[in-house]
Design brief:
Chain A: It is a multi-pass membrane protein. The complex is a heterodimer of chains A (272) and B (432). Chain A is an all-alpha fold and 272 residues long. Helix content of chain A is 56%, strand content 1%. Among the domains of chain A are: 107 residues, NADH-ubiquinone/plastoquinone oxidoreductase chain 6, subunit NuoJ (Four Helix Bundle (Hemerythrin (Met), subunit A)), CATH 1.20.120.1200; 71 residues, no CATH class. In chain A, a hairpin with a 5-residue loop joins strand 1 and strand 2. The C terminus of chain A is likely disordered. With 432 residues, chain B is mainly α. Helix content of chain B is 56%, strand content 2%. The N terminus of chain B is likely disordered. The chains are: A mainly alpha (272), B mainly alpha (432).
């Protein structure tokens, strides 16, 4: 493979043969792993490895930008959406378009055939390395900037305008007209104060009881009168019926009038 | 990221790595890791002690001289704690996340110059006090920071629990937003220094440190670096009052310690970047040519670098001891509607000024009337801008006396409201 007059250093060869198989494995993992986040991780691995290979080929700007833009921003947004969709979301396998799977398979085979043909027929010119003074300017950001903002400034501007248009379009499409007045901290506070007579509690709810013999999360606290406070147990536990009665303690025993009610209180006071 | 590969490629890099051997690089890398780990131990002690002093209490003072060994004892305690893995965790990612965090935080110091070339005491062999440098070193720092976020995001996701997930989602949004502002503030340094290599940027600050001419960019950087490291007042991903402790809720023992370590190394990282890009790097805080430049040679600059580094760290602690946590929506609005537009505007202004100076040959003297004129116009506009008449609260309500018992509870009148005259005294009672 090595053309005459151009040697790849030993370190670079080792780097390539370590990273390339791992990249292929990760790329296959992208196709075959079940969970979407794992697939995203495989893709991140491929991207970072590719950046390392770019840097090894004396294109540090390209490598670093690959990590900053693709891995740091684009892939992070993907992951963001994946996480918001749900921790256990899995792909639906129903076909929404009839015959979509076969069409996809056909197109995939066609693409593979074309790509294979092109790669097999490609004739590589002899490699020159960077001996000729780096004409493309990939290693030097200043030279790269001259090429981009000198020779290709119109294309750069066009791409910039396209991207801005796309961003503004996304904003416009997701924009909704405000139907109700905006809720501010002040208006929420006022509404709660107004709802005070309807049984809304302004303060934080009391925390569950802490006793020596019980796990406190599911055990109601005792009020100053010795009664159990059902709101002190999480609403979810109350709906599930997982709350436990508070163990009888000295505070309860001492107030003889409430003694009989403590045991049966939670069942009767379920307000969920 | 392999220094040996990059050693020869040095267009636009001031530090000379041509004499570098692989052994020198390995020794430097080990020294950097040792420096970072000991600095973290010191930083935890430093933070606790300074915050304690600000709150008029002694702080850790029991273990070792001045309590210096307190963080060592805490670290040992963390290592010996039980290592829990929650049942719903995605085990592989759960273990991987803290590793990503620490690994990425260790990467940044590779391109930070501690000093100029230093020579070893008993030889005449000189080497830059810096592991490596290349033409896009500062972008590499941003890349390492961007990868480090994956640790937080994946840690929150892999825990399979609500609070960590919320913390991770918050952190993603936060870091993406504040990285934009941070990157834009760094751009003005690139424009002025004409380079993205750290040694070249330090070299460009011989005359003046960039934080003076680029003060707006420096302020933006300082704000976004606090946001970037999830520190108070921007520690929303781990807000204790709302999310228990965010993405690290389900972590314990060594895995938790890794996150903790990464957080403190990240503080050191952004401080070191601030020092290198804005505060003159390893340059002595004296005018250029003072004592024939003796303060900027040999091993002494490492001292200046460390002093500045810990100055910025002190700022971190000071901010933490002073400010309260922002509400999340306020925080995002601040990032997107204030920081990023200001940073963008500043870059445009700076680019235009630079273009006028370098391409059009406009001198500083010619700028003065323009700046004065702009200031006069600004002041005039502000002076004659019609003042927004804010209606006093309650002015739009009719001046009827309020029924204080309308909701069933006695409520004192708001400003502008009037109570009905008291029946008891027959006098009018005014609301405050």
């Amino acid at each position: 493979m090595t053309p005459t007059g151009f040697e790849i250093s030993g370190g670079e060869t080792v780097l390539f043969w370590v990273i390339a198989p791992l990249m292929v494995l990760a790329a296959l993992g992208l196709l075959f792993v079940k969970r979407a986040v794992h697939a995203a991780m495989c893709l991140v691995f491929v991207m970072v490895s590719m950046a390392i290979l770019y840097i090894a080929q004396e294109a540090p700007f390209l490598g670093v930008v690959q990590v900053v833009v693709y891995t740091g921003a684009v892939m992070m947004l993907f992951l963001f959406v994946l996480m918001l969709v749900g921790v256990d979301a899995s792909d639906s396998l129903t076909e929404t378009i009839r015959g979509q799977r076969w069409i996809g398979l056909l197109i995939g085979i066609g693409l593979a055939a074309i790509l294979g043909g092109v790669v097999a027929n490609a004739a590589f010119p002899p490699a020159r390395g960077l001996e000729g003074g780096d004409p493309g300017g990939v290693a030097n950001p200043q030279a790269l900037a001259r090429v981009l903002f000198g020779d290709y400034v119109l294309a750069m501007e066009a791409v910039g305008v396209l991207l801005v248009t796309a961003a503004v379009g996304a904003l416009v499409l997701t924009h909704r007209r405000r139907l109700a007045p905006k809720q501010t901290q002040e208006s929420v506070a006022e509404a709660r104060i107004k709802a005070l007579p309807d049984g809304v509690i302004l303060t934080p709810l009391p925390s569950p009881g802490v006793y020596a013999r019980s796990n406190a999360m599911d055990t109601p606290a005792l009020g100053p009168d010795g009664e159990q406070v059902p709101q002190s147990v999480s609403r979810v536990l109350r709906i599930r019926g997982q709350e436990r009665p508070a163990p009888p303690g000295p505070a309860v025993v001492s107030t003889s009038s409430t003694r009989g009610t403590t045991g049966s209180a939670p069942e009767s006071e379920k307000d969920a | 990221m392999n220094p040996v590969i990059l050693a020869a490629a040095a267009p636009g890099v001031t530090a000379d790595f041509s004499q570098e051997t692989i052994w020198a690089s390995i020794v430097k890398a080990v020294l950097i890791v040792v420096f970072l780990l000991t600095s973290v131990l010191f930083a935890i002690w430093f933070e606790r002690k300074v915050v304690a002093r600000m709150q008029v209490r002694p702080g850790p003072n029991w273990h070792g001289p001045f309590g210096l060994l307190q963080s060592l004892a805490d670290a040992m305690k963390l290592l010996l704690k039980e290592d829990l893995t929650v049942t719903r965790a995605d085990r592989f990612v759960y273990l991987l996340a803290p590793m990503i965090s620490v690994f990425c935080s260790l990467l940044v110091f590779a391109v930070i110059p501690f000093g100029p070339s230093v020579s070893f005491f008993w030889t005449d062999w000189t080497t830059p006090a810096q592991l490596t440098d290349f033409p896009v070193a500062v972008l590499y720092v941003l890349a390492a920071a961007a990868l480090g976020v994956y640790g937080i995001v994946l840690g929150g996701w892999a825990s399979g629990s609500t609070y960590p997930l919320l913390g991770a989602v918050r952190s993603t949004a936060q870091v993406i937003s504040y990285e934009l502002a941070m990157g834009l503030s760094l751009v003005s340094v690139f424009i002025m220094a004409g380079s993205m290599s750290t040694s070249q940027i330090v070299d460009s600050q011989t005359q003046i440190w960039w934080f003076i001419p680029l003060a707006p960019a420096f302020v933006i950087y300082v704000i976004s670096m606090v946001g970037e490291t999830n520190r108070l007042p921007f520690d929303l991903p781990e807000a204790e009052g709302e999310l228990v402790s965010g993405y690290m809720t389900e972590y314990s023992s060594m895995k938790f310690a890794w996150f903790f370590l990464a957080e403190y190394i990240n503080m050191l990282n952004v401080s070191a970047v601030a020092v290198t890009l804005f505060l003159g790097g390893w340059r002595a805080p004296v005018p250029d040519g003072f004592l024939g430049g003796a303060l900027n040679e040999g091993w002494l600059p490492i001292l200046w670098f460390l002093v500045k580094l810990w100055g910025v760290m002190f700022f971190f602690v000071w901010v933490r001891g002073t400010l309260l946590r922002l509400r999340y929506d306020q925080f995002m609005i601040f990032g997107w509607k204030v920081l990023i537009p200001v940073a963008l505007g500043w870059v445009v202004v700076l680019a235009v000024v630079q273009w006028l100076q370098r391409v059009q040959g406009v001198t500083y003297q010619q700028f003065i009337p323009v700046i004065v004129g702009a200031a006069v116009v600004f002041i005039a506009v502000m002076w004659f801008w019609p003042e927004k008449k804010e209606a006093p609260p309650g002015a739009d309500q009719e001046k009827e006396p309020v029924d204080a018992f309308a909701g069933g509870f006695p409520v004192p009148p708001l400003p502008g409201e009037k109570l009905p005259p008291s029946k008891r005294f027959g006098k009018e009672v005014h609301g405050e």
